[in-house]
Every structure is written in structure tokens, then in C-alpha cells.
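LOG
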Amino acid sequence: MLDFRYHKTLKGFTLVELLIVIGVIVVLIALLLPSVASVRARARSAQAQSNLAQLGLGLQAANRNRSTPVTAKDK
């Protein structure tokens, strides 16, 4: 009969398990990167549209407060 008193139970991860976990994390990050880039591009587009809208509102307000309209070639 085997004596189990001297059998040590090791607690922790093996190197293979650790490498597999790291590999899974790398794959998940690689899957997320393209979506993050597209979200940033859409955010830049929304910011540009907002800036153009604000510019238009500013020109409309300036036109209301002037006797002559504001044009692109205002002198």
C-alpha cells in the first residue's frame, strides 16, 4: 500500500496552463483592437460634424446681428 503522508500537493499553475491563459488573453485583445479603432474613427467623424454644426450656428448668429450678411469673402 502506498503511503500518502509524504505526497506534497502543489498549489499553483503549471507553465503550460499559464502560457495557455496568456495566449487566450492575447487572442481576445487581437479581436478587440479593430473594433476599438473603428469606434475611434466614428468618434472623430462625430466630432467633426459637431464642429461644423457649431460653425454654422455661429455664422447664423453673426448674420442675425449684422446689417450685411457674413460671407466666405467678407471684407
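LOG (cont.) second protein
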Amino acid sequence: MFSSIEDPSFGNFSLDFLCYDRARFTLNIVMTISLLPKLRSFPQSLPLEGAVRIELVEGVPIFRASGIVQSRIEALLAKQQDDTLTPDEEEELDCYEDIDDYLSFVNCTVRNMSISQTEPVI
């Protein structure tokens, strides 16, 4: 079985996979990335240091928003549910969403690269 997944939100990005093997399930991933997603801007409240933390998950680095950034996003989301955000707060939340999408893209790329490696973990 041969399938292809394309995601236009990341430019020209496709993920092709071939799944079959007689004795076990095998996944071969071929990625074509022509454009790295671009960020419009950073929110004014984004700290220049400590905005992102790195965790190791099964030996793979995963980039996540820091506790400070996560708290700010949660505050904006809570205010959005209870009240109306100002235009500046809407823009700030949109920027955080873009950063989250970017980090997800980076994490996905790093995970896919680690899957294709056959070297032992150091």
C-alpha cells in the first residue's frame, strides 16, 4: 500500500510512506520539504531567554514552550473564554499559535529524522 499526505500550511511538504512486510510492519518515510514555515513576528510578551524548554523523549529532543510562556497563553485563552480579547491580545495569541505550529513542525522533523537513523543512542 502506498500513500501520500500533503500539508499546504507548511509550504511544499509531503510525507510519502510505504507500508508492507511479510513478517512485520515496516514504515519507510520519505520527506520533501522545500520551504520552512515562516513566523510573522514574536509577541511582545515573549521573553528573549527561557521561552523554550527542551525535553528528551526516548532519546529525541522535543522543543516545548516554557512554563512562563505556557502560563501567558493559558491566561489569554481563559480571558478569551470569559471576555473579549483586545486587538493586541488577539495578535499576541495568534503569534503564540504560529510559534506552536513552528515548534510542532520542528519536533516532527526531528522525530522523523531520528526514526531514519540506525546509529546507536549515545
